[in-house]
Amino acid sequence: MAAAAARAGFRRMFSVSGFTPPPPPAARAVADPCNNLFVSGLNKRTTSDGLREAFSKFGQVIEGFGFVKYATVEEAGEGIKGMDGKFLDGWVIFAEYAKQREAQQPAQPAAASGYQYSN
Fold it and tell me: Which intervals of the chain form a coiled coil (predicted)?
């Protein structure tokens, strides 16, 4: 413990700048397997038909743009394996299981926030 503190002090003494790199980002939560995939990184020119065509190679696509919904969870898994990190319309896309939306809290009235409008 004392040796680690001494090394840190020594490094600081001979460092050109006081820059300390930020800690690594926390790992993103992974959603449970489901038949709905979230697709990010899409080219703005990608159409619903183009997305369906690309993902239908891995199973029956029910609906979606930005989200691709398969008939089964197994087909969704194949869609991820087949399309995650692949090029679509010249852009690399990412496919992952969609996360369930959390229930949104009702909006608070303006007066409850501590700010009020006065004339």
Answer: none
* Domains identified in the chain, total number: 1
- Average pLDDT value over all residues in the chain: 79
Q: What pLDDT is recorded for position 30?
A: 75
Q: How far apart are CA 80 and CA 70, in angstroms?
A: 11
Let me know if residue 78 belongs to a domain: yes
Establish if 108 belongs to a structural domain: no
CA distance 95 to 6: 46
In a domain, 74, yes or no: yes
pTM > 0.90: yes or no: no
pLDDT band of 24, cuts 50, 70, 90? confident
How many whole angstroms separate alpha carbon 65 and alpha carbon 54? Answer: 12
Can you name the residues that pair with 95 across neighbouring β-strands?
39
